[in-house]
Design brief:
Layout: H1 2-15, E1 22-24, E2 27-29, E3 48-50, H2 61-66, E4 72-74, E5 96-98, E6 106-107, H3 109-112, E7 120-122, E8 131-132, E9 145-147, H4 158-162, E10 169-171, H5 181-192, E11 196-198, H6 201-204
Parallel strand pairs: 2-3, 3-4, 4-5, 5-7, 6-8, 7-9, 9-10, 10-11
Antiparallel strand pairs: 1-2
Bound molecules: 2-acetamido-2-deoxy-beta-D-glucopyranose (3 copies).
Membrane topology: Single-pass membrane protein
GO molecular function, one term: voltage-gated potassium channel activity
Main location: membrane
């Protein structure tokens, strides 16, 4: 009976697809559907979820974290705001997270600390993002590509990025960087390392005051 029941639940879980979305090969795609709410009945075995170009202003932690097999999550071009702390709590397989073109304001250690498999993190084009706390990525040691271009950052502690042993690519252009010794330290560290600065470093990264 238990076996039968779990088979039924598994089958329903596998064939269900939110009506606004298309589901294929463990990928659920809901791009540009004007969604204001996180879609329900997403198959639990989903590995890729694309929610780009909608109107989501928040992500429900409970529903999201049922998707514990997720490796790719694209929430770009929504209106996600406030802080996302305690949103990503058990997505330990997540490798790719795109939160660009949203309305994030702050990143803290709690925001991404549980995403220990994360390799790509896109936070660019969040015009309200004014603060990335020191050690925000301390638990994301596999991070290879981080993009915080075109935000409203004036400051980032050098150690926040320097202590990422696998970082290969960093986007920091077009922020209103405050040019004090801390920023100069970041600039000289960046010049020393082999890290690729996406965008044109000399042109994009300038101090606003
Ligand atoms: C973005 O966030 C700011 C500050 O929290 C808020 O005033 C604004 O209304 C938000 N914009 C959108 C489009 O949600
Ligand atoms: C850091 O990541 C590990 C998994 O690598 C996890 O067990 C731990 O809870 C995380 N720490 C915090 C404070 O989130
Ligand atoms: C540089 O400015 C930032 C932001 O105002 C500040 O947090 C940091 O401590 C400053 N660094 C130095 C060396 O004054």
């Amino acid at each position: 009976m238990v076996v039968l029941l779990s088979t039924i639940i598994w089958t329903i879980g596998s064939i269900s697809c939110p009506k606004e979305c298309t589901c294929q090969y463990l990928t659920v795609s809901c791009t540009g559907k004007l969604l204001e709410e996180f879609p329900t009945i997403i198959p639990l075995d989903t590995k890729q979820l694309v929610l780009a170009e909608n109107k989501l202003s928040y992500l429900p932690s409970l529903e999201l974290n049922f998707l514990s097999d997720l490796i790719y999550l694209d929430c770009s071009s929504n209106t996600l705001g406030k802080d996302l702390d305690f949103t990503f709590v058990s997505m330990i397989k997540l490798i790719y997270l795109d939160l660009s073109f949203n309305n994030l304001t702050q990143v803290t250690f709690g925001t991404f600390s549980q995403l220990s498999s994360l390799v790509v993190l896109k936070l660019s084009d969040n015009p309200s993002l004014v603060e990335i706390e020191k050690d925000s990525f301390a638990n994301n040691t596999l991070l290879r590509h981080l993009d915080v271009s075109r935000c409203s950052l004036m400051f980032i502690d050098t150690s926040t990025v320097r202590d990422l042993p696998n970082l290969k690519r960093l986007g920091i252009g077009e922020n209103p960087w405050f040019c004090n010794c801390s920023f100069m330290e970041l600039c000289s560290w960046l010049k020393e390392t082999g890290i690729t600065i996406s965008g044109e470093f000399e042109k994009d990264v300038f101090c606003s005051r």
